[in-house]
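Protocol step 4 of 6: record predicted structures for both targets in the notebook before any analysis. Target 1:
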Amino acid sequence: MRTNRALSAIVVVSAMLVASCGELVPDPEAAAPDVPIIEKAPLPTGDPAFDSVYDIERYWEETAPTIDLDYAPVAEDRLFARSELEDDGGVCSWNGEAEDLDPDDVADNAYVTDCDEGITVVWDDIELVPDLEKRFPGAGVATLMAHEWGHVVQFQLQLFDQTAILAEQQADCLSGAYVAWARGQGIEPFDDDQALDWAIISTLETRDEIGSSADDEDAHGNGFDRVRAMQEGFDRGAQFCMGYDETPPPVTQIPFADATDEADGGNLPYDEAVDLLGTAVADHFEALSDESLEAFVDEPDDDLLRELYDEIGDNAVGTELALRWAEALQISVGEEIDGEGPALQRACLVGTWLGDMFENGAEVGDDVISLSPFDLDESIQTFSTSNDLLANPGLVFELVASLRVGTIDGVDACALDG
């Protein structure tokens, strides 16, 4: 959070140019490569990234006609793991000029590029893949590779006029569409509810560095926007994702306001956060009610708020307070408060507070407080790091979906009676 600065409205980004995840950029004048269609079987390589390719390509062979794409599977000799580049190397040419694929370019990364030899997919199997596999078994790597195949599809459609952030979030959306298909097909790991939670948490961790601008030439998006795009694809499918070109999604990524905001990491001091956010949250929810809510609020203790602040940041405090006031609002209008449905409604109501803060900020006495770059992500983290919530597989996925619905669509989307 930050004080004494008004918020700008949500930015809508127009399409301008395409970029892959890595540093190799295609020649926009080059013709699309003639990639032969080849028959593939599952590849039990021991590399989960390579192994996920079979199912992802099956998805695109089935789905491509719905987006007017004559999909051509990526040739197996154009799939490169970092260890392979370090051992044997690989070549990518543009207009006949060959360049060695550098393993350093893919360290802790994955990317797709459009070579004369064919669309090429490269990933780090030395650091990135083992780390994802350890923390998010199956789901982290599969979600990563599904995102990269979103770029494969963009190259085959020759979408060379997108902004970087539009291209990345469309690829996130397409990865979500794959996850939904895999779940419907009973394909591991997405036949397990826990994998849905891991998919969004791993997506959250691929966000841009805090304070980055959405206008940067290599922008991917903050965690909130990347998770939103992934869940939109899950809910609405690949055709919806391709609509991003005509109707770009809302972008909530904002830079630091000033050097002080950056030095503080966008966090107010703890006592100030509790005081200012407590008032801002109360004002927001009181405005949604015909009666005072104060008597219905189960205030959190200071130890909990301090722990959330220290482990996540100031808007974890705001999110926890908003959850308590959302419950008070439910009680006041006679809603149930126990069970999954009421929990999803509370998350939606918390989102209405976030959306109001993003659009308008809040006047608290002589101060105006507004969101800092990391605050929306901190709300997601408040849900995604809760051991209680993670003990109920799939619930974090649903709660985060409800949170962003409330943030973007407002209180009417939360189906609050009364």
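Target 2:
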Amino acid sequence: MDRREFIKDALTVAALAPLARMAGAAEKGKGDDMDKKANYTGTQVTRRPYRNTGMTMPLLGFGLMRLPQKDGKVDYAIAEAMVAKAMAAGCNYFDTAYMYHGGESERFVGNVLTKYPRESYYLTSKMPIAMMNSADDNERIFKEQLERTKAGYFDFYFLHWLNAAHWEKAQSFGTLEFMKRMQAEGRIRRLGFSFHGEPETLEKIAKFHPWDLVQIQLNYLDWELCRSGEQYEVLTRLGIPVSVMEPLKGGTLVRLTPEAKAVFEKANPKASVASWGLRFAAGLPNIQVVLSGMSAMEHMEDNLRTFSPLVPLSDAERMTIAEALAAYRKSGAVPCTACRYCSPCPMGVDIPRNLALLNQVKGGLPLFHAKLVYDAMKEKERALSCVSCGACLKKCPQQIRIPDFMAQIAKNFA
């Protein structure tokens, strides 16, 4: 990155400072006027009012897409302990979806969250437009989700993974109309959608209906790369609260290069690398909730420290992020979040794992060590099995040129 590009990034990040000060002012003097009450004790996460309803929501939400696993299954002992710690700290917003953990995420909700009073937590799930084949799937899938979660109703319910093509498909199946009927019957409280696409498409969908909450991917790497900043501005201008997914880009903004990590450690040795990314997202005033896909107890504990209370970034800290971002970009890392939407590959290639190995090498891991892992993978899972069919290109929310990277990995790891 040359000096001009660095200054552009620095100015972009620094320009958010007035917004952060607005957010900080909004937090002062706010009471614990939660409409979702539980027996909370000890330090509490920062909450924000939801529109003008008198209701507040935790600024930190528990994303149930990356729950801890053991032997390929959700590790209930650890995950349930994480839920207990979250609830005790007032982190009572839980986000799941039909496809997360192959359906086990929603079943986890039904087995664990139902041990708490239903009025004590917020639950969001989503209609998987990409997996639907007909309008009949609306009722079939929604009924299955209610049975899995045992929740009785969803506080928020989203059209999942909208882009131009999925929005057209949802309209052809009458999915929004179905959701409105469920809302009228009390099975859904508020409507929204999650989005992976361009700001122009987002604005078109956002104007179609008076949505209650919209979920977008937002982090300091994607602010310009994936036009997250423009998406945030669209929703803010339209008065729609924002739910943030991938604030750490699937862990990418924790697994930074040594050079980028050194920038953060020099600025504040006591702060975790993750806290910088979370504070960047949470400091924006129109952010209602920042989802963290926590997969270990230490993730939960670190995040609770970051949000109890949230301290918005200072101007100097925004410049620190710009400096770290400049150092990270020198590695040329692939922006994969390991969401696994590209899976299954028709040929059996484990795309996220191959990209993760490539990023580790770009981040400084000796190729020899990466090859030890690569060579131990089943042959069909390795990048060399890619036939460039392009099926993954239609599925990747990050618009990564996956076949090109598979060819690069196959050559370099041979």
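Step 5 preliminary note on target 2. The longest strand covers residues 154-162. Residues 351-412 form one domain.
Proceed to step 6 after PI sign-off.
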